[in-house]
Amino acid sequence: MTTKNQSESTKEPVSAIRLSQLRADPENVRRYESDAGIEGLAATIQTMGLLQNLTVRRPRPGEKAPKNCYFVTAGNRRLKALNLLKSKKASVDGVPVTADFLVRVREIDETAASATEVSLIENTSRENMHPADAIEAYGRLAREEGLTPEAIADRHGVSHMTVRRRLKLANVSPNLLAELRKDAITLEQLQALALTDDHAAQEAAWFDAQEWQRDPDELRAALSPEAALASDKMARFVTVEVYEQLGGVVLRDLFDDDESRIRLTDRTLLHRLAAAKLEQEAEAMRGEGWKWVETATEYNYHSGGLSRIYPKETDPSPEDAKRIDVIDARLQEIEIDAESIEDDAAENRLFKERDDLEDERAAIMDRYTAYDSAEMATAGVIVTIDYSGALRIERGVVKPGDRKEAARLANGSTGAAADEAPAANLTDALVFDLTTTRSAALACELAKRPDVALAALVHNLALDAFYHQSYASSLGLRAGVPVRTLKADDPANAKPFETLDALAADWRAKLPSRAADLWAWCLDAKPQELSNLMAYLLAAQIDAAKRPYTDQIAQAIDFDMADYWRPSKDFGKRVSKKYMADALREAGREEWEAKNILDVQKADAVSLFVEKMKDARWLPGPLKTTLAPANDIEGDDEAEADDERANDEPFPLAAE
């Protein structure tokens, strides 16, 4: 299907032909045509639209050709660029580039000129229009002829968005357009500078920048240093809609459709709105019986000498205990059934049943878990924002001044009150010395019983990891909780976190529901089961930032991070194009592939990078396993060894 209209400047009709109907002309005089620059041409077409029609002809009778096809006599590189956009599922003028995408063409009359002659003229006499010329021409249409963006779009057969983008570029500083004409700046960099209409700010961001600061993302950051991205946790919490409704100013990048990259310029207003929303949430908790309820836009439990009290568990009623037993039995059956099921629909139903049962079990246990009212009078609540922008409520937080009273109440609730009277007349120093001596003696005997020591270790770590009651243990160990930020930020590399979540779910199903029953379970468990649980609990604490010790562990277990991680789009967005190009070189890719990364827009560079690296098993420096000699990692030399390894890493990560 084609649509036609008569061109004012030529006798040949201009048609719109489906992309799938276009083929390279075998009579094109250009026999060798490099693919170099096709990525850049595709990026230009995506941003600026198809500035020139393709010249086509119909196949002659008897000429071998697919049905209903047209041969592209002039414009084969533009055809390649369009097909590249099709493979990337990109859009031009707001229209997805598919097989049915309509391409404007001019059909030649071979009675007036042969295809060879047209191709020869096309390749010897025509010079492509520079993007700077097109940008300035659109600017003149608006300024000098007074045409609206809509009128320009209608006259030239392009979308309104395309015209707005070209006019936005036309409003960039003339000095920067001169840089574009000299090919000293790329179209993608110019688009980044168009984030603001302030010419002085544009020029300062470009001319005062170091080379590495001229990455488009770096330029955008330089133009809005105080702005918060819509993806920031505080912006997510408040929402862009509420921020704008209350007078907040935003910067929207006309060349970026990603809503998460909208910039909120008034951080003071954003903080004020977040604080007000947190205060509203906090007000609802001030009747729960806590000593205090406070709000904080940023909160770190591990700073400020804070501690915590925990809710207490009571025995479920006979009816609820019976229901828990039924749920536990069914969860075990589901675990067994899931191993052999093959039908996806049936598997989904089974997992849905599992999730519902786990939710029901948790709801039952919640009814028998509550904070002690006396302990609540020593503790409080922090109402804050989590890393994803969701409301986060931290109950049971104890400030340094209340720690002694909270500890006394906690000990009293576990039966220690009866033992306090005999020590009432002893000094604190004497009590400390006595308990220290008892600890030493107990340690001597425990050292003779590795079976009980293993049970005590697992009991302590499991109390912390599954019951949040490490304070009740006789040991001073903490299991900690694996941080799962990667799971939220980079779904393509969530495998290790999903595996840890699955392991945690397995152990929760095996362990008793009450913390009070855990010690008996540990004593009764087989040594191998205790060892397996201990391995999981210790593994969950590993901190890969503490090198080289984790590198030693990695080598001992033949660990290869490439089994868990691949370069993803999220990773590519957080590094520069130069970093990606260097990574391709390190991975053994061809030099032209690395240079292509530098020639295209950032979004296209990221897609290209991910595609080229999918089977490379390449790792960035922080994910590699290296092992220093033992004498380099003793005592105070550890930090120096880490610094040396950091310097050896070939590609330091670019700033976000």
From TrEMBL:
Keywords: Plasmid
Superkingdom, taxonomy of origin: Bacteria
Disordered: region residues: 621-656
InterPro entries: Chromosome_partition/occlusion, HTH_ParB/Spo0J, ParB/Sulfiredoxin_sf, ParB_N
Domain ParB-like N-terminal: 15-124
Keyword tRNA processing: no
Bias (Acidic residues) ranges: 633-646
Name of the molecule in the record: Chromosome partitioning protein ParB
Origin species: Methylocystis iwaonis
